[in-house]
Each structure stands twice: as structure tokens, then as C-alpha cells.
Amino acid sequence: MTEASLIVSLPLLAAVVTAASARVARPVGLIATAANAALAILLARRVLAEGAQVTHLGGWEAPLGIAFETDGLAAVMILMAAIVGVAVAVQASDDRTPRSATDPGAFWPLWLATLGAMNALFLSADLFNLYVTFEILGLAAVGLTALTGTRRALRAAFDYLSAGLAGSLLLLLGVALAYAAAGQVDLSVVPALTESAQGRISLALIFAGLAVKAALFPLHFWMPAAHSSAAPVASALLSALVVKAAIYVALRLSLDGGIGAEPLRVAMAAAGAGAMLWGSWHALRADRLKLLVAHSTVAQVGLISLALGVAPGAADSTLWHAAVLLMLSHAFAKAAMFLAVGRIAEELGHDRISGLNREELRPGAAEFAFAVAAVSLIGLPPTAGFVGKWVLIEGLIDRDAWIWVALVFAGTVLSAAYLSRVVSRCLRGGPHVAPGARRPQWRAGDVAALGLAVSALLLGLGSALPFALLEITVT
Amino acid sequence: MSDLLPLAILLTSLGVAPVILALPDHWSRLRTALNLGAATIKVALVAWLSMAVASGADFGVGIAIAPGLSLELQADALSVLFLALSSVLWLLTTIYAVGYLEGGTDRSRFFGFFSLCVASTVGIAMAGNLFTFLVFFELLTLATWPLVVHRGSAEAHRAGRIYLIYTLGGGLALTLGTIWLYALAGDVPFTPRGVLGDLPETHRASVTAIFVLLIAGVGVKAALVPLHGWLPVSMVAPAPVSALLHAVAVVKSGAYGIMRIVYDVYGVDTVQALGLALPLAALAALTILWGSIRALRQDDLKKRLAYSTVSQVSYITLGVALISPLAAIGGLAHLIHQGIMKITLFLAAGNFAEARGVKTVSAMDGMGRLMPGTTLAFTIGALGMIGIPPLAGFVSKWYLGAGGLDVGQPAVIALLAGSSLLNAAYFLPILQRAWFRPPPEDVVPKRGIGWMLVAPPAVTAALVVAAGLLANAPFSPLGWTRFIVSLEYL
Amino acid sequence: MTTDLVYHVAGAGLTGLALWRLATCRDALRRIMALNVLAIGIAMVLLASGFDAATGRTDPVPQAFALTGIVVLVSVTAALLALAERIGGRSND
């Protein structure tokens, strides 16, 4: 299957080209991002038509070669990254958007490397591949964090990188122990791991490593600073996609029976619930817009982790399908939100929430995009967030898991509370805006933010497509 | 083609909403043309649809969202009742709002959300299952919030916050109830006489709890006591919004939700068997009295009207909860009757404020002489509310009373009498001041108001008279509700 | 058997020490050192688990894992040092 090989190699090749020549970085980056989106669509169509596929890179079979497995889940994630990527690239291609104090071309190679690594990660069929792609992704993501070159961004990048390294070392140890217990690193050995004590320890270590990378409470300490001090385009990628990569791996492992170990599942769900409350509390108290959005990611990752923790595994697909839908919804809405915040801050010159009521500035398209994205994140109909929460809660009620239902509802109320802090300020008007107040000009960034926010809204109506793809998942 | 008619009706407002939102504020001609064009087309389409439904046609169109979950639009006799109300009043309110907001700020935002609000109402009317109903019901909350805070003042934002807390809280209860019901019974399509009749006895407690959640959810919008607190507060909104919120979109969606839940989800027999009818009727009776008593003490004209809405909307709930065909006819007809009467009152009140700056009952002295046309419209609305024959309100109250006797609850007659007395007690002083007292010396000079403000209340006042006088005509609200009730009770 | 256990215990001990230092220390250089110690501890556990005392043979795959870990460690350490150096440079701004 050529799409699978292309979708990994094309972004990585383009990353090399854009790194080599800053002059062509922007056109090459844009074309590569668009081509990646086209490939993602082709890939999804192929999976829908022909079912899951295995590709051996360069014709080499295991154990020497690298095998890519393309199934519905992988296709959904690749599509997600491709769509978010297009919007982010559109905003980044606007020359007037300040991205980096040092090197305006640095964004493109980092973004393309992130994209290539993510695509490879989604297609990986063994634990070791997952580990390697994770490392490439991690390094590119740190580069994105440090892009603005400010002291705060550098410090956040440092914390991010050291936390990420600790996480991946735990992951490596887990993978190695898994090998020692089962004799191979294919994802299919995961069920056998739950049998022995050593296997369970290795799984716990892998999940601890993933939790650091996914910023799952209480291992999220590095994340709000990193996501709130990076450039808006970088924050959008980090929050919407990079964090999802770790969740995706956790989902893969749990589908293969990995969190069949009951204590691990409960720990994931409990950590998720803690994250929802902790993240929401900090978002309620945040004084800067980007910090609020970053803390909201902590809370939303918690919700997804809760859904994964309560999901009993591959045999019963309702709950993990819900988790994937929540991941999609969060990816679109959160990326839209960061892009919108970037534009708002650009117009205002700051991102303090109390200073949003500027009399000489009318609310513009970016603020509207923020509001629409907020509707998705809260999970109001007809968004994908709503459909995801619906499926999740229906599944929980089916299992009489009322405590989790209550927690999901509490998280929803809290998200409505902290997001309405901002949205109500987006609706300023009437006599409280000066008569000659200007309205911000439309920019590429507004189009990108609004486009993503509206896709999050419409995805709810089109949820049948991701559900159909998820049915074709190899477990 | 005709299967797509419900979709076309939805799109006439859902489709224009984003276009209007994106228009620059000063393009008022194009915006008005879009608004009025869409509203007129919608009225025509609804007229076509009601003819078809009357001749027995079925409409249904839907898309699958997730396994076991689909959005379905349908059109039955009950949908047509609500559709006709919202499409006709949307047209009139749009004309009024164009005149009212002339020269104001943020008009594109206002009319965009106004259209979205009507789109949600139409979606609620044509929802084919509980899920679809929920989707549009929540969309209505979102679409009305920017309208409530439109003026942008601190007071408006406070009102908006209270409005959101109430409606989103209700939305959560409704969502939980709906999901729970789907988990128990699968898809819940709206079906005459309900779908829960054959649910096993073991689910009795769950089904009762779900009923409470659902009614609490829609009860917020229907302003059932004690969930009515948002309604008087949100009076800070501009007059056309108050008219729309109180006469059509929000409170009626709540009342309509109660109808759908009792008739087409549970079925009257199941509600009766679960022993839920009497508590609901008692709650409605309490709301009728409480709203009227609170209305007595309001000097602010719009607040008095708001408490009157709290009271009057519960006639609809009462008609549903009494489980008698006659009472049901009264309640359903009141959905229309209260709508046209209340919108007349609100539009007239808006004109008093616009032309003379009159916002309180105590400032109404001599308005009959100063603004005879508007005061006449107001008077017709008020007399209708009290239930003076032959106006629309009398017809509803007559059938409600007959229904009460029918099920052996003569207390209903006492309730209606008491409530009508209270109605008279808070409306007649206004009329007395307006017609029989001289205008004050320092009367505010009249600001000119155009035909766009004068005509809509005149038309709705004429409708109030017609709905009463021509109650026996086949296409009158009463005639149509008889048709609906014959489907639910046969 | 005992030598095997010694490596396991020592590796686990180093890992624990390093994680504790990472959690408690704010100084950039010390954190980088702690990460390196963490990697060495993990590498020791890996190498020890690859050795089969009964046959006296070693399995190459854990060694490959350890090698990959070291490569990642070196590159990340370089990146961390560069970042730390820049942060230090910026403090005079």
C-alpha cells in the first residue's frame, strides 16, 4: 500500500528540504501539508473500501523490517492530524503573523518533522517503532515550543524536554521488560503481558511514561507552561495533536488487552477524573487566555483518559469509540481555540482575560471562532464533543457506572463555567464599545481558526464517518 | 421532493443565519431583504406543509449520527401547530425588529442569532425523536443568549449569566434523562400514544426518574415554578427579543417539549399509570397562581408581562397533565392563543417605550389618547388574557374548564376563576390608566415610530380576535387542535 | 545468579535516586545530570535482563534497546544543554 509509505516519507523529506533552504520553506511546507491531507483522504478511502492493510517498508519483513499497519483507527488519527495541520499551516503562512524572533523559517521543518513522526507513530505495529517515532516527535515538539525564543518559552521547552525524556526512558524500560517477558515487541504480545507479574510491571511503566507525555494528571506539571508560552501555531499543534499521540498509544495498548489489568484501568479513569477537576479549577482562575486554554487541555485529556479507563477493551467498542470521538473533537476545537487566541492577542497586544473588553476594538472573527470552539469543548449539540459525550454516558449508564456519569457531568459544568468567562466577553457591544471602534481585519489566521471551529461543529453531524472507520480497527 | 419539505423549512432560517452573521453591519438593505425573504418563504412552505399534513401525508428525513443515534425531521399535526405559530410570528417580529433596531449597533449579529433562534424553534417543532429534540433545544439556548445580552450593559450580562445558568442546567437534566432513556429503550421516536407502554415493570423506577429529569429539563424553558427565575430577569433584552422569547421561541419550546414527552414518548396511559399526571397538574396549577400573584406587584411593564407569561404558559401544561381530551384541546389551543396574545402585548409595550419612553405601569396614564392604535392592540391582548369572550383566551379557558369537569376535578374551575380574577387584577388597572386618566402635564414628546413598529401588533391583535370569533373554522387553532387530540386519544 | 541480582538492584536504585532528584531539584544542570543517571540506571536493568545466567549467553535485543536509549539520551542532553545555555544567556536581557 503506497499511501502508507508516502504519508510517512513525504513530510519527512519535505522537512529536510525546508530545513536546508529557508527561502523555499513556506511554499514547500504548504504544498507538503496539502499533499499530506490528500494522501490521508486516499488512505481513509482505501481502508473503508478494502479493510485494514499491512505494509512492509521497502519490502523487508519482520523481524528486520519495519511494518506499517493501516486500519480504521490509524486512518482516523492521520486524517485528524492532516486537517488540523492544514489549518495551522494556513495561519503560519501569513507573513504578518509573528512566529519566531530568531528564524522565521524554523517553523516549517519542525512542523513537517512532527507530522511525519506522527503519521509513522499512528501506523506503527510494534512497540519499538512506537518508541522511536515518539522520540522524533518529542524532539520536534520541543523545537516548536521554543520557537518564539523568549526566555519563558525556552524555560518551558527545557521542562518539557526533560519531562519528555524521563517519560520516554520509563517507556523504554517498559518496552524492554515487555520483551524480556514475552520475547518480542509486536503489539500482539500485549495480551500475554497481563498474565505475568513482570509483564504487568512493564505495562505499568509504559503507561507511566505515556502519562507524562500525554500530560495526564498528576504528571501534567510541565504542560500548561509549555503550551501557553509557545507561539500560537505551535501551541495549537502541541495541544491538539502531540498530546494525542501518547493517548493514541495508550488506546492501542488498551485495545490489545493491555489495560485488562483492572488496577491500571481504574488508575487511568481516576487520574482522568482528577485531571478534569484540577484542570478546570486552574482554568477558572487563569488570568491569561492562553493559560486558560492550556489548563482546559489538562481537563480534556482527563475526560478522554476517563473514557479509556472505563472502556473494557476491544470486545465492547462503545466506550473507546467515544474516546476517539472526544479526541477528534478536542483536536479540532483546541487547535481552533489556540489559533483564535493567537489572532486575538495579536489585535489586542496582550492576552489578559480581564483586558478583553477593549472599547476601541470590536469583536472580530477570531472571537467568534473561539466561541464556536468553546461550544464543541463544552460538548453542546450538535458538535462531535456532544456525540462523544453522549456515547460515553450511554455506555456508562448501561454499566450502571453512575459515579463516572456524575464526574463527566461535573466536568461539563466546569468547562462551561471557565469557557463562558471568555465567551461572554466576546459578546461585548452596544454602548460599551466606542462609536468609532474598529473591527479587526480578516487574516489567514481568522479563516483557519473559524474553519477548524466549524469543522468541530459539523463533525458532530458527520460522526457516522469516523464510526464507520473505527469499525475497521485491528485489535 | 416533498420529503425534503421539512428540510427546506429548516434551511430557510438555518441557511441564512451564517450569511447574515457574516454581513458587514451597514449593509442593512441586503440584510433586511434576506431576513424578510426567508421569513416569507418559510410561511409559504409551512402553509404548503400544513395542507399536505391535513390531507394525511407523511414527512420524514434523517441522517445517522452514530450507531443507534440519528437526527430525524418529521412533520405531523402537532409539529404543524408549532410551526405555524413560529413562522407567522417570526415574519411579524422580524418586521418589527428591523424597525426597532434601525441605526443600532451589531445588527448583523442580532439578526444572525435571531434567525438561528427561529431555526432551532422550527427544528424543535419538526424533531422526529427525542435526540433531535434535544439537539435543537440546546441550540436554542445558545442562539438566544447573545440576544439576551445584546445591549451589552452590565445588567444585560448579568441577565445573560442567569439565563445561561438556568437553561444550561435544564439542558443537563434533559440530556441526562434522554441518554438514560436511550440506554433503556433504544431510539425514542415520537409516536402518537407513546413508545414506553410495553417496557417491563422492573424499569418502573428508572422510567419515573427519567420523566422527572425530562420535565425538569424542559420545565426550565416552560418557566414552571420554581424554575422560572430567568424569565423576568431576561427582560433587559430589546423588545423584539422579549416578544420572541416569551411568546414563541423559548417558553413555547418548553411547553411543546412537555407535550411531546407526555404524548409521544410516554403516552398518556403510561403517564397515568405511573401516577405522574396529578403531580404535573398540581405543579402547573401552582405556577398559574404564583405567576399571577407576582405579576400583581410589578410596576415595570415588561416584568409584569413576564410574570404573566409564567402563569399563562402553564395553562398549556395543565391541559396536557389533566389527561382529558377536552383539557388537551384547551391546552394545545392555548399554545397558539397565548403566543399571539402575548406577542401583541410585548410589541405594544415596546412601542410605548420607543415612542413615549413609557416603561412602567404607573406611567401609562393617558396612553389611550396619545397612542390609540397601539393601546387598542394592547387592550385586545390584555382582555384576551383575562379570558373575555369572544377573544382567543376565552376559548382555551373554556375547554380547560370543561376538561377539568370531565375528569372529575372541579377544582380546575376554581383555579381558572381565581386565575382569571388575578389576570383582571393586574391587567385592568393598566387599561384603566391608559383609557380613563388624562396624560401627565410633562408628557414626553412623541418620537416618530414607523409602520414597521405599528403594523405587527395590529396584525397579531386582529389574529387574537379572529382566533376567538372563528374558533370553529377548520383551519383555526382550535379546529387544528381537535384534529391532533383525536390522534392522541383515539 | 547473584551478580545478576546485583545489577538489577543497582540499576533500580539508580533509577529511583534519579527520579527523586528530578522531582525535587529545580537547577537545570542538576536535572540534566539526574536524567543521565536515570538513563544509566535503566540501561543497567536492560543489560542485566538480557543476560541468561543458565546458558551464559546474552540476548542482543536488550542491548539494542540500551544503545537506542543512549543515542536518544545523548541527543536530548545536547538539546537540553543548548536550551539551558540560552536561558542563562537571556537572564541578562
From TrEMBL, chain A:
The chain crosses the membrane at residues 73-93, 105-122, 128-148, 160-181, 201-223, 230-251, 263-284, 291-313, 319-341, 361-381, 401-419, 447-469. One of its GO terms (biological process) is ATP synthesis coupled electron transport. Residues 124-414 form the NADH:quinone oxidoreductase/Mrp antiporter transmembrane domain. It comes from the Bacteria. It is a multi-pass membrane protein. GO terms for molecular function: NADH dehydrogenase (ubiquinone) activity. It is found in: Cell membrane; Membrane. Keywords: Cell membrane, Membrane, Transmembrane, Transmembrane helix. The keyword Ribonucleoprotein does not apply. The keyword Ligase does not apply. InterPro entries: CPA3_Na-H_Antiporter_D (IPR050586), NADH_UbQ_OxRdtase (IPR003918), ND/Mrp_TM (IPR001750). One of its GO terms (cellular component) is plasma membrane. NDH-1 shuttles electrons from NADH, via FMN and iron-sulfur (Fe-S) centers, to quinones in the respiratory chain. The immediate electron acceptor for the enzyme in this species is believed to be ubiquinone. Couples the redox reaction to proton translocation (for every two electrons transferred, four hydrogen ions are translocated across the cytoplasmic membrane), and thus conserves the redox energy in a proton gradient. Belongs to the CPA3 antiporters (TC 2.A.63) subunit D family. This is Na(+)/H(+) antiporter subunit D. It comes from Roseivivax jejudonensis. The lineage of its organism: Bacteria, Pseudomonadati, Pseudomonadota, Alphaproteobacteria, Rhodobacterales.
UniProtKB/TrEMBL annotation, chain B:
It comes from the Bacteria. Pfam families: Proton_antipo_M, Proton_antipo_N. GO terms for molecular function: oxidoreductase activity. Keywords: Cell membrane, Membrane, Oxidoreductase, Transmembrane, Transmembrane helix. Residues 69-111 form the NADH-Ubiquinone oxidoreductase (complex I) chain 5 N-terminal domain. GO terms for cellular component: plasma membrane. InterPro entries: ComplexI-like_HydComp, ND/Mrp_TM, Proton_antipo_N. It is a multi-pass membrane protein. Residues 127-419 form the NADH:quinone oxidoreductase/Mrp antiporter transmembrane domain. PANTHER family: HYDROGENASE-4 COMPONENT F, NADH-UBIQUINONE_PLASTOQUINONE. NDH-1 shuttles electrons from NADH, via FMN and iron-sulfur (Fe-S) centers, to quinones in the respiratory chain. The immediate electron acceptor for the enzyme in this species is believed to be ubiquinone. Couples the redox reaction to proton translocation (for every two electrons transferred, four hydrogen ions are translocated across the cytoplasmic membrane), and thus conserves the redox energy in a proton gradient. This is Na(+)/H(+) antiporter subunit A. It comes from Roseivivax jejudonensis. The lineage of its organism: Bacteria, Pseudomonadati, Pseudomonadota, Alphaproteobacteria, Rhodobacterales. The gene is mrpA_1.
UniProtKB/TrEMBL annotation, chain C:
It comes from Roseivivax jejudonensis. GO terms for cellular component: membrane. The keyword Transmembrane helix applies. It is a multi-pass membrane protein. It is found in: Membrane. Keywords: Membrane, Transmembrane, Transmembrane helix. The keyword Transmembrane applies. This is Putative monovalent cation/H+ antiporter subunit C. It comes from the Bacteria. The chain crosses the membrane at residues 6-23, 32-51, 63-84. It holds the Pfam family Oxidored_q2.
